[in-house]
Write a structure and sequence with these properties.
By secondary structure, this protein is mostly helical. The protein contains five helices and no strands. It has helices spanning 6-18, 20-27, 33-60, 65-87, 90-101. Helix 1 packs across helix 2 (20-27) and helix 3 (33-60) packs antiparallel against helix 4 (65-87). The radius of gyration is 26 Å and the shape is elongated. The two termini are 46 Å apart.
Length: 106
């Protein structure tokens, strides 16, 4: 690890003192809430619409209703997995299932 010279730290402190935006940016917590919200509000409905249109186009035109229903069943399973991942209840369900197979002494 390389030591930072004291003079460089003093210059950085002086710069942050004269430019309040630098201090504000340095104190801001970074998270992924913005991109997560954008994906949930914009990208996910668009993907679902695309899948629905593809299912209707691929299977509906040929009269293969059973094949369409198999695909729709797979889409429902995928939607359930996405719902568990987004809502955060997957951890609770995993803990419950693990509790069925393990014994606690407490």
């Amino acid at each position: 690890m390389t030591a930072v010279p004291q003079q460089a730290l003093e210059q950085l402190g002086a710069f942050a003192g004269t430019h309040p935006l630098v201090g504000t940016l340095a104190q801001t917590n970074l998270d992924t809430e913005g991109i997560r919200g954008w994906i949930l509000n914009n990208l996910l409905p668009l993907l679902l619409l695309t899948v629905a249109l593809l299912l209707l186009w691929l299977g509906g035109g040929k009269g293969d209703n059973a094949g369409v229903m198999r695909r729709v069943g797979g889409v429902f399973v995928a939607l359930a997995v996405i719902g568990l991942a987004v809502s955060g209840t997957g951890v609770d369900i995993g803990t419950f299932i693990a509790g069925l197979f393990s014994t606690s002494s407490g």
